[in-house]
Prior knowledge:
single chain, mainly alpha, 2 domains, 12 helices, Brnchd-chn_aa_trnsp_permease, cell membrane, Branched-chain amino acid transporter AzlC, membrane
Amino acid sequence: MMGYSVLGFAFGLLLVSFDYAWYYAPVMSFFIYAGALQFVAINFFNLKAGLVDIAIASWFVNLRQSFYGLSLLKRFKKTGKLKPYLIFGLTDETYALLTTIKDDEQLKKRWYYFFLTAFNQFYWLVGSTLGALIGASVDFNTAGLEFSLTALFVVLCIEQYKNLKNKIPFLIGSFSSILAIIVVPSDKMLITSIFLSLFILFFFRKEVNKNE
Length: 212
């Protein structure tokens, strides 16, 4: 709640600072609900990018979530009618919680997954709406707000690192990211580092599994 409401607030502030109406924030947070992409979307609007350009960029920005989905196929198998929403509401933060917090066997898992996802979207929706409303009424210096999402990713990564005994995937991810920053343009860094990490993990899968 603290992470998502604050991040949503930052998004709302940033959105109205570019002279967009406050109600765009809740509409985007309800129908799009993609934290990183919503921050990026503000730049799309300012550049008056075409729909095809936006679609391609959005696909690359959110491609990482397809790998999240593959790893959750088994968990979501018996979620029934809730499955479409769980797919829609899967974000980096929700994925981090699903893979870090141990399931409580006393709870019905499909409803646990649903409410975890729904509350996260609710926190984001409320935070972004409040940020937009306050930002439309009070002048704010929004310099650096776009870094708030990166800061949350760093915290989530640290939590994953603490909970997993196997450190090899983190070393591979770090190496792939640094190499991608050096070798390819910044706008292609994310997708390059993801594919490079997957390739290295597959190549060294025996060593990785041995350390589990």
